[in-house]
Amino acid sequence: MKKKIFYIPVFIALAFFSAGIAWAGGMSLVRKSADLTVQVVMDKNPSVGKNAVRVALKDASGAAVTDALMRVYYSMPAMGGMPAMNYYANAVPRGKEYVAVMDIPMAGSWGVAVKIKRGGRLLPPVKFSADAQ
Ligand SMILES: [Cu+2]
């Protein structure tokens, strides 16, 4: 009986790690974009209204990259009689990370794409979905 109880949390932890995303009153994910490691953090669960997205970039040596330009796009496809909704927020450097504030107008599933430009080059976007309550 004790073994079963032990295995369940381990399984859940592995499931979160393998998906590269963890939801526990917020969200954190780590992805690669070109030669950069991109960490995206939302400190609270997405909701209608203002939502801060913090993004940290690291180069191959693990050093913080602070000379990039960044924009966070968020969109919802057309549904029913409603047209698609597309917005973006510029990310502003703050210390060793960047902060963008998404102003989410309605509940539902939003597709988010973090677009990074560095040295005049647009890097592959980091995409995830945010289910706003
Ligand atoms: Cu909608």
Summarize the structure.
It contains 1 helix and 11 strands. It has 133 residues and is mainly beta. It has one domain (24-132): Macroglobulin (MG2) domain (Immunoglobulin-like), CATH 2.60.40.
Protein model, in words:
- The protein has 1 helix and 11 strands; from the N terminus they run αβββββββββββ.
- The chain is mostly beta strands and 133 residues long.
- It has a single domain (24-132), classed as Immunoglobulin-like (Sandwich).
- The strands form 2 sheets. Strands 1-2-3-4-8-7 form a 6-stranded antiparallel sheet. Strands 5, 6, 9, 10 and 11 form a 5-stranded antiparallel sheet that branches.
- A hairpin with a 2-residue loop joins β9 (108-118) and β10 (121-122).
- The model is unreliable at 16-20 (pLDDT under 50).
- Copper (II) ion is lined by residues 76, 79, 82, 85, 106, 108.
Alpha-carbon distance between the termini?
37 Å
Helix content: 10-25%
What name does the CATH topology carry? Immunoglobulin-like
Counting DSSP E segments of at least 2 residues, the number of strands comes to 11
Going across the major beta sheet, what is the strand order? 1-2-3-4-8-7
Helices and strands: which structural class? mainly beta
